[in-house]
Amino acid sequence: MTTPRFRFAAALLAVGVLATPQAFAAPLDGQRMVLVDTDGRLMREIPEAGSVRIVIDNQGRRLLVDNWNQVIGFEVPAWQYRDQAGQRGNGRRFDRQAEASPFPERPLPPRERFQRDDFASTPSGAGIERRDLNPMTGTVPATPEVIEAPAPETPPAAKPQQAKGPALSKAQVAALQVFLDRNGVSPGVIDGRMGSNVTKALDAWFEETGERIDPADTDLIVSRLAAGGGLAFTTYTITAEDAAGPFIASIPSDYAEKAQLERLSYTSTVEMLAERFHMDEDYLKALNPGVDFTLPGVQIKVVGIGEEKTGVVTRIVADKARKQVRTYDASGKLVTAYPATIGSSDTPSPSGEVTVERVARNPGYTYNPKINFKQGDNDKILQVPPGPNGPVGSIWIALSKPTYGIHGTPDPSTIGKTASHGCVRLTNWDAAELAGLVAPGVTVSFID
């Protein structure tokens, strides 16, 4: 059994067409080698010129790295590919004839098998040599650039009882978040951070399936991603419509100033695209360093989100203590779960049961200090225009208790971490999915 250190981190999250330069898998030290992708399958095509490079790790092994600095393939002895292919995936054996290697095989002593654990992610591994692959000759420069990765931190000797398992990279956590998001148990914004919203989503997955997922089991997570919609990241080309907006320079905090605007639109393409792909803005920018998001035709790396959940929800549970909304069908089976901000000590949400009355998309917002809450010096009724940056985001699900509803938010990164004015606040994309699952009359149970 492999250990969690094999998880490859970012390496397993590569996207794009995987390919095989024949020269890469030439005999090495008398061994016949083959090149496989990160799912363990043979790579058969030649990548585009300049799209990959060879990386030599500190033990002399060769990996194929794409322009995102992620491993998309690696060398293994041909005999080992044949041996391990029969043991990979859901208890089934690969068809060796269908997956036959195009390279002659030469057996090696069993003790020389490479360990998959050795291919740890670059941030936590040792130094590597980065060599640009010459697309014309397959050769490498004489003087490679050496990249030294930081040494892993050692837990304090005085507190051995607090030692934990291996820390997860952002790429590993993001893969888990994408898996949960695609399966209707939302982790909120995808940001590569292992927080309370991810934990709640894992609990919801257990409620739905009876399965406990180990966040460090990236082999399992990535294999399921590949089988259900593709790997965690993909590429997206910014369109002219994306770049055109419309956008506004900033969102005022004062409701009277909001009411003067025509629409509470996005403030930038970064904000718009981050929300479209369920991502934290800073994480989107970190994945695309130096990118000008305002230029049409620019390719960026984004999360590969899935389709919205379908079905019929007959009951919603708004769990105040857990800060989560869960939905159920007529049989009592969990349909979806979303991290939520549900009221506060000053403006608590209702208790008991209410029902859904109507669903409004792209709603405006009526501010009434006499029946809602007092904001600043505003003491008059104000009509705040619609838009994703409006007070209730892009969705309003009205409840039978007047002035209360389930709605979106202009600040998705705060969901589950701040207070609301008594309503149930979700990310705009989670609220939109929920809006498609409910109808008037659905029961909403608030539990403490």
Verbal overview:
The N terminus is likely disordered. It is built from nine helices and 19 strands. By secondary structure, the chain is an alpha+beta fold. Helix content is 17%, strand content 20%.
Biggest sheet, strands in spatial order? 11-10-9-19-13-16-17-18-12
Record field, number of beta strands: 19
Query: What is the overall number of helices?
Result: 9
What Rg, in angstroms, do the CA atoms define? 25 Å
By oligomeric state, this entry counts as single chain
Note the overall shape: globular
Number of domains: 3
Q: State the low-pLDDT regions, or none.
A: 1-26, 87-163
Keywords: Cell shape, Cell wall biogenesis/degradation, Peptidoglycan synthesis, Signal, Transferase
Family: Belongs to the YkuD family.
Protein name: L,D-transpeptidase
Pathway: Cell wall biogenesis; peptidoglycan biosynthesis
Strand and helix map with partners:
Blueprint: E1 33-37, E2 52-57, E3 62-66, E4 71-77, H1 78-85, E5 128-131, E6 145-147, H2 170-182, H3 196-209, H4 218-227, E7 233-237, H5 240-244, H6 255-258, H7 269-276, H8 281-287, E8 299-303, E9 315-319, E10 324-328, E11 334-339, E12 341-342, E13 352-361, E14 365-367, E15 382-384, E16 395-399, E17 405-407, E18 424-425, H9 428-435, E19 443-447
Parallel strand pairs: 9-19, 17-18
Antiparallel strand pairs: 1-4, 2-3, 2-5, 3-4, 5-6, 7-8, 9-10, 10-11, 12-18, 13-16, 13-19, 14-15, 16-17
